[in-house]
Amino acid sequence: MKIYLIRHTQPDIAKGICYGSSDLDVATTFPVEATAVKAVLPTITTNTKILSSPLQRCHKLAQFIAKEYPITIEQRLTEISFGDWELQPWRSFGKETLIKWKANFVHTPCPNGEAFQSVFDRAKELYEEVLQMDADQVFLVNHSGVIRAFLCHLQGIPLDNAFDEQFGFGVVFEIKDGKVKRLK
Fold first, then answer.
1. CA-derived radius of gyration, the chain
2. Long-range contacts of 23-28 (CB under 8 A, 24+ apart)
3. Domain-by-domain residue ranges, the chain?
4. Domain covering 2-182, topology
């Protein structure tokens, strides 16, 4: 079985705004970005499972990729919740607040939000379930934070280092026999 971690395309939001579990639409560049993502993926067969975060920026990409094939909405693929920080400018939180949060984001959630540990826990649980699926390939259309949680689990990366690797929108990782390869 091959598993593909697929990050959504550019969302329709200004730079510098904190968003995670907010349900943002896709940017006007979606058709070009989605075509580029689809180009690196293998052909979908009747034995392909497609799971998507319920957030529209992922679901729209999943629909673009899947065409007539069924998509399963999977809540555990939802991006981290930044709670009260959602849709606020990052600069509005103050330097000291951000330094304190970044020092322990794994276990400390934003106010009324979610700690990265919980994202990791749900991603790990989902990964173990995906391994049990009767499928040749599984597409997981989701978010940066969730992909980072999968990568931590698969590559033994400490959760504190989850954000060390940089990648943009529309990134695709292929997993085969527990080994990770970046395709885009």
1. 16
2. 23/55, 23/56, 23/57, 24/55, 24/56, 24/57, 25/56, 25/57, 25/60, 26/56, 26/57, 26/60, 26/61
3. 2-182
4. Rossmann fold (3.40.50)
Sequence-ordered alpha helix ranges (H) in the chain: 30-40, 56-66, 95-103, 116-131, 144-155
Structure tokens at 181: 């390869």
Structure tokens at 178: 């527990």
CA distance between the termini of the chain: 19
Print pLDDT tens along the chain (184 aa). 999 999 999 999 999 999 999 999 999 999 999 999 999 999 999 999 999 999 999 999 999 999 989 999 999 999 999 999 999 999 999 999 999 999 999 999 999 999 999 999 999 999 999 999 999 999 999 999 999 999 999 999 999 999 998 999 999 999 999 899 999 8
